[in-house]
Amino acid sequence: MSQLDTLTSIRDAVRSGERSATDVCQAALARIASLDPLLHAFNTVTGERALERAAEIDRHRDRFRGASLAGVPVALKDNLCTRGVATTASSRILEHFVPPYDATTVTRLRDAGAVIVGKTNCDEFAMGSSTENSAFGPSHNPWALDRIPGGSSGGSAVAVAAGLTPLALGSDTGGSIRQPASMCGVLGLKTTYGRVSRYGLLAFGSSLDQIGPMTHRARDAAIALGVIAGSDPADSTSASEPVADYEAALSGDVRGTRIGVPSRLLETGVDPEIVSAFRTALEVFASRGATVVDVDLPHAKYAIPVYYLVATAEASSNLARYDGVRYGFRDAQGELGAMYSRTREQGFGAEVKRRIMLGTYVLSHGYYDAYYLKAQQVRTLILRDYDRAFEHVDVVAMPTSPTPPFKLGERTSDPMQMYLADVFTVSANLAGLPAVSIPCGFTAASGRLPVGLQLTGRRFDEATLLRLADAYERDTEWWMQTPPIASR
Amino acid sequence: MPEPLSRAQVEAVAALAHLELDPAEVELFVRQLGDILAHAGELQQVDTSSVPPTFGVTGRSADRPDEVVPSLGADDVFGNAPDSQRATSAAQAGGGFFRVPRVIG
After folding, report:
1. Interface residue B62 vs chain A (CB under 8 A)
2. Min CA distance, A420 vs chain B (Å)?
3. Is residue A406 a contact partner of residue A131, using CB atoms and an 8 Å limit?
4. How is A413-481 classified by DSSP, letter by letter?
């Protein structure tokens, strides 16, 4: 597979018969075999299953002639359940867990003709911004192998950036799709809360988690979203709002679209090269007829503490299920209580334990009001800020990450420093809004590293985000840049 | 605002969370969780006296009709259990047990 093979180009080639699904699959597997030892995008590669599925698609070409993802190789973050295929969330506690069912997104991808080639590395239980919290070792940024790819969906971002698969699914609780997309130079879409079924996603923060696509182009993301979006009886929080024709929304026309920029938020702590790439990107939109105006999000500066109190509280509750009884690792020594605590002590890594501890503390008697309840109240103010902003603008634009990808190991000893880097991404989760990160340039000072632009939209208005992203691609070439390793 | 975390508090929280932390981890969490909570202290500056909390963003009820639908079979349910026993009597066909260490002596 050449590195510029996009979802759309592969899909069209398989549909027309120009390429067989088997040929596409073999090429993807060969690329993974040659590059993944350097990148560690994958925890598991399901080569045999993938080739069987590809052969099935080739055998039943008529049935898949109109399929949205005919023959498209897909990588899935390893916290999405796959029947019969290990699903670890990059944790020792689930190292040998083989789900008895598929996540709804997995079923929908497969029904649309996609070929699942493997499960991607991530921070353990999606907790982290660098993939360094994986129990199986970090993934490497294809643009600089000694740097982080971002996280937590780092393996998925690497898979797309290095041309291993044209589509990957990630999950985003506080930026985990958008931040690695930004750091690897691909597009990552966090969907509106409820837009995509979470059934079969190993839960982290249930009021925040969403699944979304990572691709090279807006059109590819539009097609993938059309496949995975929609209500699902198995997820009571999935929304019944009609699924838009996202591909039809890609008109290239952004005239009159209003883009809000919270300039005050960008005044401190943002890498100057990132600010400069961001400002240049805004000019591209303006030259296409969009209007760029200032917006005020007065409570956005509180988003980090709100997020880390709410997300850890939800995590401490969700991860209580991993106790060595029904699935996963068990330390069988001692009586029942000791079995629980030893199993969890050995099965969870440092960051997961840190978050379970924090979440348990803020929910405990005497601290609930001061921390958890207070955070949920400030969350309301953050949400109202956005609602107010969307009375005047169609999207809010920010950089995705305040810094370019840092070197592996550079920040592991300082969790607070790591958390602060999520400053631009967590608000969309707290407010349940859709947000996309698109490639908008490169740094020079610390090497050629990708920079991402984030657009946040109104609830269920993914179409506007994708329309803007697509229009931007028409005037820029950032999306088609590939890392040197991809040309090997 | 509560005082910084003590060792005893960290140990009490670890017990609630079913985590058997080693002494070095307790020490580390006293410091790290203390730092994070100190940072979270800035939320106290925000006046939230008349602001309701947001526990979820959909604003819709998650109620659904209470209907029986197909679910996982016993083979699937017990397939990942570290220790389990399938039912042996005909009366419990399709059932079984997760086995755990003895609780009562």
Report:
1. yes
2. 10
3. no
4. T-HHHHHHTTTTTHHHHHHT--EEEEEEEE-SBTBS-EEEEEEEESTT-HHHHHHHHHHHHHH--GGG-
Chain A: residue whose CA lies nearest to B24: A350
Instruction: Inform me whether the C-beta atom of residue B42 falls under 8 Å from chain A C-beta atoms.
Output: yes
**Are the beta carbons of A207 and B76 separated by less than 8 Å?**
no
Q: How many distinct structural domains can be found in chain A? A: 1
> Is A287 inside a domain boundary?
no
Q: Average pLDDT of chain A?
A: 96
Identify the band that residue A129 occupies on the pLDDT scale cut at 50, 70 and 90: very high
Task: Give the other-Cβ count within 10 Å of A253's Cβ.
Answer: 12
Task: Parse chain B into domains and list their residue ranges.
Answer: 7-45
ipTM: 0.94
Query: What is the phi-psi region of residue A223: left when phi exceeds 0, alpha when psi lies from -120 to 50, beta otherwise?
Result: alpha
* Whole-prediction pTM: 0.97
CATH number at residue A39: 3.90.1300.10
Integer-rounded Cα radius of gyration of chain A: 21
Interface test with A, best of B5, B10, B20 (most A CBs within 10 A): B20
Across the interface, whether the CB atoms of B103 and A383 are under 8 A apart is answered no
Nearest residue of A to residue B36, measured between CA atoms: A416
Task: Point out the catalytic residue in the list A68, A77, A171, A427.
Answer: A77
For residue A147, give its domain range: 7-260+388-487
Q: What is the DSSP string of A258-287?
A: EEEE-GGGGSSSS-HHHHHHHHHHHHHHHH
Distances in Å between the alpha carbon of A180 and those of A191, A282, A486, B103? 16, 21, 17, 46
**Looking at domain B7-45, which of 1.10.8, 1.10.10, 1.10.20, 1.25.40 is its CATH number?**
1.10.20
Between A17-26, A197-206, A364-373, B55-64, the lowest mean confidence (pLDDT) is in B55-64
The residue of chain B nearest to residue A319, with distances taken between CA atoms, is B17
Query: pLDDT tens-digit profile of B69-100?
Result: 888 888 899 999 999 988 777 667 778 899 99
Contact between chains at B102 and A336 (C-beta distance less than 8 A): yes
